[in-house]
Write a structure and sequence with these properties.
This protein is of the alpha/beta class. It is built from eleven helices and ten strands. The chain starts with 14 loop residues before the first helix and ends in a 19-residue tail after the last helix.
């Protein structure tokens, strides 16, 4: 869930060059996400590309949903963190066009509501604080819905993802079911993410058990995260389930360990927003008209499908 400045080249490149690319895994499904990273998305990864199928332009305005917008709403500014491996957001080769699951969902909702979207790239950790100031109308960067975030942010859910782990294939690490299994290890993750928060909040599980605490290594670019893992400076990576599966499918010598904690993912708004009812209706319209499924299939994330959108639901508990 951390971001970087605009990358200068396409994200998928051999690992020997990956440290020079700004690669990001955004943070945070219901259902099994074994299919994440496969289908069109995986095929694109293996050929050095990014899925570019147009699954949004055919979306039509829904008058009922549009009427739920505050009067006079014609355009909105959305902040998206850039620099991620699919399904996260990155630039295509032209250095201008954004591509990613969050981009498709934001654009599709904009079409349903009949509004123009002004998209601005921002570092992941800067987006949520900026919503309250009005700098952005909403954020779309795989924001996991947590009880802590709900204190200051409103969410409209559109997928279900979560927290997971990956490591090198030569590692003896297996399924992580308890953070005490990380004691004494170096854990790489994104700055300002739910992963960093989870790890920092639970460090005491090791010391309480009389063990050496794990070390949390945070990075603003996930190219640096994977470089740290591949070169042995880190022992394990904690990031999004979908992002981890995709990265492991693309890179040599890595393995996905397991899902750790599921989270709903939503568009983020300042607390008390009047935009939530319209966005919820728009997501539900996309589910009903089949566009939703097309977007998930494009990015290989059908395991993250939800049945209906919710406004700021309680954090999922394991």
């Amino acid at each position: 869930m951390s971001t970087s400045s605009r990358p200068r080249r396409r994200i998928f490149i051999p690992f020997a060059l990956i440290t020079s690319a700004a690669v990001l895994l955004t943070a945070c499904g219901s259902g099994d996400s074994e299919g994440a990273g496969k289908s069109d998305a995986q095929a694109a990864a293996k050929t050095g590309g990014i899925p570019t199928a147009d699954v949004v332009s055919a979306v039509r305005k829904n008058e009922a949903a549009a009427k739920l917008l505050p009067s006079g709403t014609r355009s909105l500014t959305v902040a998206i963190s850039v620099g991620g491996t699919p399904p996260g957001t990155s630039y295509l080769d032209d250095g201008k066009t954004l591509a990613g699951q969050d981009v498709d969902f934001a654009n599709a909702v904009g079409k349903v509501l009949g509004i123009k979207l002004k998209t601005e790239s921002a570092s992941f950790e800067a987006i949520l604080p900026a919503l309250g100031s009005g700098k952005y109308d909403f954020g779309a960067s795989n924001f996991g819905v947590t009880d802590e975030r709900r204190k200051t942010i409103d969410f409209v859910t559109y997928i279900n993802d979560g927290q997971g782990f990956a490591t090198r294939k030569d590692s003896k690490l297996q399924k992580i079911t308890d953070l005490k299994q990380l004691c004494g290890l170096n854990v790489a993750t994104g700055a300002g993410t739910t992963f960093e928060a989870t790890l920092e909040e639970n460090k005491k599980v090791c010391t309480d058990a009389g063990k050496k605490a794990y070390k949390v290594q945070t990075y603003n670019e996930s190219g640096a995260i994977w470089s740290s893992l591949q070169q042995g400076r880190s022992d394990i990576v904690m990031s999004t389930i979908n992002g981890l599966r995709y990265a492991v499918a693309e890179q040599q010598g890595l393995k996905f360990l397991n899902e750790f904690h599921r989270l709903d993912v939503g568009f983020a708004f300042k607390k008390g927003t009047k935009l939530a009812p319209a966005f919820q209706a728009a997501v539900n319209e996309l589910i009903a008209d089949g566009t939703y499924e097309k977007i998930l299939k494009k990015w290989g994330t059908t395991g993250s499908a939800i049945e209906k959108s919710q406004v700021s639901p309680p954090e999922l508990k394991d």
